[in-house]
Amino acid sequence: MTKKLNQGLYASMIAAAVFAASCASKKHAAQQVTLKTSSTPGGGSTATAMLGGAPKKEGIKKFSDIITPKTKADKGLFTTYKVDGKYYYEIPDSLLNREMLVVTRFVKTPANLKTFGLQYGGEEVNDQVWKWERHDKQVMIRVPSYSLKADSTTDMYEAVKNSNIDAVLASFDVKAYNKDTTGVLIDVTDFYNGDVTATGIPDPIKKAYKISAVDASRSYIDTIKSFPINTEVRTLKTYRAAESPTDNSTAAITFELNTSMLLLPKVPMKARLMDSRVGYFGQRQTDYGTGAQKSEVTAYIHRWKLEPKDPAAYARGELVEPKKQIVYYIDPATPKKWVPYLIMGINDWNKAFEAAGFKNAIIGKPAPTAKEDPEFSTEDARYSVVRYFASDVQNAYGPHISDPRTGEILESHVGWYHNVMSLVHDWYMVQTAAVNPNARAPKFTDEQMGQLIRFVSSHEIGHTLGLPHNFGSSYAYKVDSLRSKHFTDTHGTAPSIMDYARFNYIAQPGDGVTHLYPQIGEYDDWAIKWGYSWFPGNKTPEQEKETLNVWTKERAGNPLYYYGRQGTSIDPRLQNEDLGDNAMTASTYGIANLKRILPNLEKWTFQKGEDFDDLQEMYGQVLTQYNRYMGHVITNVGGMSENFKTYDQKGAVYTFIAKDRQHEALVFLNKQLFATPTWLINNEELSKFDNGVMLNRIKAVQVNTLGAVLSSNRLARMYDNEGKNGAAAYTVADLFNDLRVGIFNAGKPDAFKRNLQRGYVEQLKGLLNEDVSRTFPGATSAQLASMGLTPINTALSDIKPMVRAELKRIDTGLPKGGDAITAAHYADLHLRIKETLNPTHPVINFPAAPAPGRGVQDDEKTSEIEF
């Protein structure tokens, strides 16, 4: 279990880099600098490096010499003072060495920032844990590390401490002791005005705009406010920059930032141990205090702290309200007509929390007005907020910030981009318009768009509750069930809203299906029950795990409760944008609907006096949706099912996809793709915007799909399958034979088929000239294989002899003669094959193309769409 968990966590890290996938909270490397604040003769203060020569210190003054009776005190976590433009913290001894979460967010940003995820007011810049520590006449900020642990009662505790020293971020001279000597006074002005990444902008922006340093003359602290468990520091920072997103002549770039410092609970929440069979975001530590005869990784899930108000009633099985409700506020900058739908999406999760024994566990609210609560701030780390960004990015994302000690979720700021409406509009039209009159318009009604916003809101809130994408959920429902009105009215399109199962493209005209999108379903109820159920009796996490394991085994094998991780391409169940338990059948229905939609696009996008931009965009969406269907199908070829298990469960974890199902995938490709899809091009709509790239459009889908089918990673799995299962396996020879039948079938090849045949030969040529697979330093073969990057050295494998044989077979079967273009085409193929098998010139390798349809969109505006 531990090894599997390590592999899964490592694979997730690699997958984020390879596939650009995931969700949920953004982290930026914190700059660990050490500042020393010291007095100057003029009463000012300067920040100097610890290793540099510090100005001569003044002695510690009386408190009243600095903080006069007339000075206004802002009491709270730290009492703060402002004197002659300087800001002071009075730190009580009781808060020294207490852990505090520090979160810095943008308040306002310049226009046109191109650093995705770091562009808009409200987005997180950095988070850290700080401990204020006093050492003689100095106070230091320490940044603890939580990567190693050992219980303080174990022999290993001291050894872990010796290998895990906390970094010093900054140091401050003690200016005075407070009146009763139970605390100290420090000057924090230069620290918050300085160029410290923890409270300023991160490296990606500095690199993007060639930023050198903070310009103190154009920067200042706006406010420092203190509250019972937090302080809020708002600053305006101007940086010297060689480039600017708006005007290079200013040689500067300005940001407004807010840094929240929130006191963490003195007694941490009890952690819940992670389980790869139930999907949760989490964190891991190397635990040296378990008594194991090795270093052991312990992983905890991320979850909110929910405890029943009435434990006795909870124990009796009654629904009970939590001591503290999970509350999300809607950004006051949100257009008012969308606020109710965002709130509905939040409140919809109450149904799932009832499975864990809680009622009214979560609520969405409009943010209070300045009159209702003058101290409320959307940047305040005490509050969770759905932030609304005026942006053309087609996205939304749901991050969260958790206690690194236990995984307790402390707050979340959902990022909601205005243009996500364009994304869901286009998807809803291209996936449902064949059966749904409400989707046949360039602009939906407010009610229709509101319901789509509600769906996205629920998905993003799921992330903030700790739930990652469950890409295996949509496989649970049979394809035919998704054509049933009764079934879809009850279940939606998938048992989890956390899948990338969008809208019902399977339902056909006449089926009567009207409920066309996902909803919080059976898996979501189960996941919340598993993660949030409260156990009486002060059980340890290990004791709770025993009960949770029983629950999990009871649901094993039931597809409604299956969790399929993101970040792998080996399992055809674990795909995005797919529906149903058979990709070939589902995609056949989907293509039938695309054929109905395409001839109507001009009518459904019509806007008087406008050009054909919307028509062109929606044609692109049709092509992209078609491309997705191809991606759903090819994953069956060389695919394996992945079902994580523990020692006390029977059966295999990995099983190859059945031979007949893989053959079915090739039959589909030959019929729906390699036989030229003329319906995509023989239409009047194309003439309104196509300027000579029709051939390229079809070629791109065909050749990219070929490249994905023929990837060496896929062929490596197929050889493994053949070695293990012999004649029961779908082999590389079977694959080549099925491809040849579809690509070199009888008849005169048209321009599209000639492109396809050349593409096939070039893809084979690429395999023949591929010496080794891509390498990823630090990743084991098993870790790569878990993501679908099954390693293989083609030079030492059976790939090259099989490719050579296939090329010879193609060459032998090439017809002779024909009209001028056909004869020239066959002669060219002959020369290509001859040169490949017996090269006389340096080899130019055309690597196999990536699989289509694997991303959230195929033409992403960003490298990772969280929605």
Low-confidence stretches: 1-55, 846-866
Helix content: 25-40%
Q: DSSP helix count?
A: 24
Shape: globular
| Average pLDDT taken over every residue | 87
By secondary-structure content and strand pairing, the structural class works out as: alpha+beta
Count of beta strands = 27
Terminal Cα separation, in Å? 30 Å
Give the amount of beta strand, in percent.
15-25%
- How can the largest sheet be summarized? 10 strands, mixed
The Rg value, from CA coordinates, equals 30 Å
Describe the protein.
This is Glutaminyl-tRNA synthetase. Residues 856-867 have a biased composition (Basic and acidic residues). Residues 443-746 form the EcxA zinc-binding domain. It holds the Pfam family DUF5118. Residues 845-867 are annotated as: Disordered. This protein has a domain at 31-263. Helix 9 packs across helix 16, helix 17 runs parallel beside helix 20 and helix 18 runs parallel beside helix 21. The radius of gyration is 30 Å and the shape is globular. Residues 1-55 and 846-866 have low confidence and may be disordered. The chain contains 24 helices and 27 strands. With 867 residues, the protein is of the alpha+beta class. 32% of the residues lie in helices and 17% in strands. The strands form 6 sheets. Strands 1, 2, 6, 7, 8, 10, 13, 14, 15 and 16 form a 10-stranded mixed β-sheet that branches. Strands 3-4-5-12-11 form a 5-stranded antiparallel β-sheet. Strand 14 (220-227) and strand 15 form a beta hairpin.
